[in-house]
Amino acid sequence: MDKITGQRRSNNMRKIKCKDTKPELLVRRLIYCMGYRYRLGGHNLPGKPDLVFLGRKRVIFVHGCFWHEHDAPECKEKHIPKSNLEYWLPKLEKNRSRFTDNIHKLHRLGWKHMVIWECQLKETGEIIKDIQLYLES
């Protein structure tokens, strides 16, 4: 049973952004400062990657730990909702399944991918190294 009204839940969900999120903007800023150039939103690619490096055939997804169920034990951002489980559990599983399918499609098209998790952005020094290694390999 949900603890708040349907109207309030709807208003809360409407405020959640799907693009230009804080983690996404931070990653974009880091990559730009590293000297790499990219395209946004790969609308013509499976899964609509957040950042597309056309010449390198590489994409980066910036994932929220809750929405994409980050399963790393050290992740403090991911949590299972306590209410309305009959809605949330299938929704989160469907997100995960859809992402896996899209990754397979990308690989079949010859693209490589990287996922940057929201919780990883607390250590920008480490993520900068990972991005550089990914883009240069």
Give a quick summary of the entry.
This protein is α+β, with helices and mostly antiparallel strands and 137 residues long. It has one domain (19-136): 3-Layer(aba) Sandwich (Endonuclease, Chain A), CATH 3.40.960.
* Amount of beta strand: 5-15%
Q: Assign the structural class, choosing from mainly alpha, mainly beta, alpha/beta, alpha+beta, or little secondary structure.
A: alpha+beta
Percentage of residues in helical conformation: 40-55%
CATH superfamily: VSR Endonuclease
Instruction: State the end-to-end distance.
Output: 49 Å
Radius of gyration: 16 Å
Largest sheet: 4 strands, mixed
Total domains, how many? 1
Strand order of the largest sheet: 1-2-3-4
CATH level-3 fold name: Endonuclease, Chain A
The H-and-E topology, N to C, reads as: HHEEEHEH
Shape: globular
- State the name of the first-level CATH class: Alpha Beta
CATH architecture type:
3-Layer(aba) Sandwich
* Poorly predicted spans: none
Oligomer class? single chain
Model description:
This protein has one domain: 3-Layer(aba) Sandwich (Endonuclease, Chain A), CATH 3.40.960. The protein is built from 4 helices and 4 strands. It has helices at 6-14, 22-33, 85-108, 124-136, and strands spanning 39-40, 51-53, 58-63, 112-117. A 4-stranded mixed sheet has the order 1-2-3-4, with helices on both faces. It is globular, with a radius of gyration of 16 Å. The termini are far apart. The model has no long low-confidence stretch (mean pLDDT 87).
